[in-house]
Amino acid sequence: MEENRNDWKPNPVFSSMPHAMGRGSREDIVWEALDRVNGKPAPTMDAMRAAMGNEAQIRIVHDTIRAYLDAHGLRDTSELGVRTLP
User: Fold this and answer.
1) Is the pLDDT of residue 72 over 70?
2) In this predicted model, what pLDDT tens digit does every residue of 20-66 receive, in sequence order?
3) Is the pLDDT score of 10 beyond 90?
4) Rounded to whole angstroms, how far apart are CA atoms 34 and 65?
5) Residue 1 pLDDT grade (very low, low, confident, very high; cuts 50, 70, 90)
6) What CA–CA distance (Å, rounded) separates 51 from 64?
7) Range 69-75, long-range pairs (CB < 8 A, 24+ positions)
8) Closest by alpha carbon to 56, among 16, 25, 29, 84?
9) Number of other CB atoms surrounding residue 58 within 10 Å
10) How confident is the model at residue 11 (pLDDT cuts 50, 70, 90)?
11) What's the pTM value of the predicted model, to 2 decimals?
């Protein structure tokens, strides 16, 4: 799937309602989870703050991707890409 977010950057103060309620928000969650699987540090916050935002969803997606990679003996997504190339 091609990257379709050219020059798009999330606004830390205001996000549009369509973006927050739709596909854009879900893409943000998956992108952030993939970045973390590849080594980006997670922010430190308590469970209540995490549950109130996207953090809880990011953690679930991260854990799912991590479990998949671990089951296949892969360190990160770059190793997955190398294995799938012909």
Assistant:
1) yes
2) 677 778 888 899 999 999 999 988 888 788 777 788 899 999 999 99
3) no
4) 8
5) very low
6) 17
7) 69/37
8) 29
9) 22
10) low
11) 0.69
- Interatomic CA distance for residues 61 and 57, integer angstroms: 6
Nearest 5°: CA angle at 29, between 45 and 13? 65
d(CA 82, CA 86) in angstroms, rounded, equals 9
Distances (CA, A) of 9 to 6, 22, 63: 9, 16, 25
Long-range contacts of 29-34 (CB under 8 A, 24+ apart): 29/54, 29/57, 29/58, 29/61, 30/61, 31/5, 32/58, 33/58, 33/59, 33/61, 33/62, 33/65, 34/65, 34/77
